[in-house]
Amino acid sequence: MTKHYTLAQLAEALGADLQGDPAQPIEKIATLLSAGDKDIGFLANKKYRSQLASTQAGAVILSASEAEHFSGNKLICDNPYVAYAKLAQYMDTTPNAAQGIHERASVDASVKLGQNVSIGANAVIEAGVELGDDVQIGPGCFVGKHTRIGAKTKLWANVTIYHEIVIGESCLFQSGAVIGSDGFGYANEGGEWVKIPQLGSVIIGNRVEVGASTTIDRGALDDTVIHDNVILDNQIQIAHNVEIGYGTAIAGCSVMAGSVKIGKYCQIGGMVAVNGHNEVCDGVVITGMSMVTKGISEPGIYSSGMPHTTNKEWRKNIAHLRNLSDFKARLKALESLTEQLKHTDN
What is the DSSP string of 175-242? Predict the structure, then answer.
């Protein structure tokens, strides 16, 4: 069911300056291009400014510097993109992962339940688990023995949390996430692999979001640690004993190998691989498809992924790449010859 708001209600929720009709009805958020007369759009990137002239939006969120370019109803704020995010939270209609404790949920008698905990059908909550107030456990989830989950954390359907994991408050786990699986630890004895039981845990802070099918392995001896306010996209691999600092964001399909340490406020693009035992300092941006083979000690933007080109050009470049050693040897020979000729002339 669609919920209706007035522009005045939205302005109050955002703390924004309203210019126009306070009674303007708003039903949902939309792009400037697709918005109708009961939608609210937003301008966060000036390259879309031209769409202000043709948008049918009932109102637009924009900054004070852009306000003169739109004559309709508007909400003016310092950061329109952040305002859009907060408005999306305010108008969010996403349902709960579960409602109450389902009769088909399996909850051990020793589990400690906070107030207003919800557990969906076919979820399994093992002995010694502690669930804080307002925790939501979706259908088909598994929470292993002696795990602790903080207040207001939400697990969508089919999330697996292994034993003795610690998860903070107000976290969100998308479907298929696996937390606390074994790290990739083996010793080799005469060609036979000898498994090393992973004896550490996973410690996850507050306000952490983990994407669908992302895996966070438990530590081998010490713990894998994800600090507060970290966001992890879908299908990421976090190996054993990794530590990810406050406020870091990692995009989909990236891999953090064992014992990697990522600093605070880093941004790591999609399909990035960081080799094991390397450390990345605070404030680093790594662009997509980069391979990090050694530590990064200075903040900045780092890249190594090769941009696409035509197949013909790529094959030509790769042929040159394969001959780099030969080119280097020939260059050294030419430099040596040049030096000899200089001495001869003198």
Answer: TT-EEEEPP--EEEETTEEEE------EEE-SS-EE-TT-EEEPPSSS-EEE-TT-EE-TT-EE-TT-
**Cα(263)–Cα(343) distance, integer angstroms:** 53
Q: If we measure between CA atoms, which residue out of 229, 249, 129, 246 comes closest to residue 180?
A: 129
* Catalytic residue set: 240
Q: What is the pLDDT of residues 259-315, one digit of tens each?
A: 999 999 999 999 999 999 999 999 999 999 999 999 999 999 999 988 899 999 999
Q: How far apart, in whole angstroms, are the C-alpha atoms of residue 117 and residue 102? A: 11
Beta-carbon count within 10 A of 189 CB: 8
Q: How many beta carbons lie within 10 A of that of residue 86, not counting itself? A: 16
pTM of this structure: 0.91
Q: Which residues contact 187 (CB under 8 A, 6 or more apart)?
A: 193, 194, 196
d(CA 40, CA 30) in angstroms, rounded, equals 6
Residues 6 or more apart whose Cβ sits within 8 Å of residue 331 = none
Cα separation, 218 vs 166, in Å, equals: 11
DSSP state for residue 122 in the 8-state scheme: T
